[in-house]
Amino acid sequence: MTVSATRLLVTSRSRLVQLSLAVAGxxxxxxxxxxxxxxxxxxxxxxxxxxxxxxASTGRIGVAAVALYLxxxxxxxxxxxxxPEKGLGLAYMTGPTGGYLLGFLLAAAFVAWMAEKGWMQGFxxxxxxxxxxxALIYLPGLAWLSAFIGFDxxxxxxxxxxxxxxxxxxxxxxxxxxxxxxxxxx
Length: 186
Prior knowledge:
single chain, mainly alpha, two-stranded antiparallel ribbon, 2 strands
């Protein structure tokens, strides 16, 4: 086998592994959207947790997983929280919560970029980066929701009930990432 043929084979396997990881990541996001944890004042899903952990641990592959997850939803698969079995596709994505879905991609890109720059090494920096990532979900989410119900109601219904849950998910993601690194070293 020639050197160029060997490189092509290695690159193809590498791409296949990356694609497989992105598909697995999109499935994790799908599952995390369907897991509801009783929480006050509203039940929470584990999407933010999964998204932050995925982006922090896999970098660009995590971003690809989020993009694939959104594409699956656009094609009508029931991947989003609260979507019926047949899904709703673009109609759901352009509805009141569509901005948060865009925020998923922004958050994943930011966290992955910061992880690749080495900002996930310390626990406090990991909390800050993941906290900013969670906030990036809210920026387009609240802007989009405001177009439907006004800014004050968007903050009251699209931010305030979720703050405590998202802070908890940021903390859990930071701890889980540290635990995964320790297991990998052992």
